[in-house]
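Support reply, case 0932

Customer input (verbatim):
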Amino acid sequence: MKETRLEIYPAKNERFSIQTNGALYINGVSHNPEVGVSIEEKKPQSKTLYRYEIILPLFFNDSKEIPGTLMDLTLDELEEEFGGVSLEQSRIIGFWRDDDGLRYKEQNTRIFCDVPLDTDSRTFFRAYKKELETRFKQKNIWMVAYLIDVV
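Our regenerated output:
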């Protein structure tokens, strides 16, 4: 019997099933081993994503410490939206001047989120930036996006 090979690349946490020649395969596992169809669940060797990095302050502009609940809320929202988020716990010291020349020294942290290449993520992050500026009472939240190649 000729073997037919089919490679499947399911989305994260997505179940798939195939029915062929009377056999049922769920997530690549045969439910009738007598049928000569080999299915493997394989991941591509590399994948290109956008990495969004967000620099968030640890203190409000009046020098009061930002409650951890605000950071937790932000992390929870990004995990819910994209399935994962990372927080770098080291402090990032930043200096900048506003339009009036007033100098700021800030203590920040960095979170990052890797997301699929689609226009919906960019739209989401543009709106989310404004939400974070309000939440953390900031004139500007520094946010960048760049391509990464996951191997």
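We compared this against your earlier run and they match. Two observations from our side: The helical segments are 68-82, 119-135. The chain has a mean pLDDT of 82. Please reopen the case if you see a mismatch on your end.
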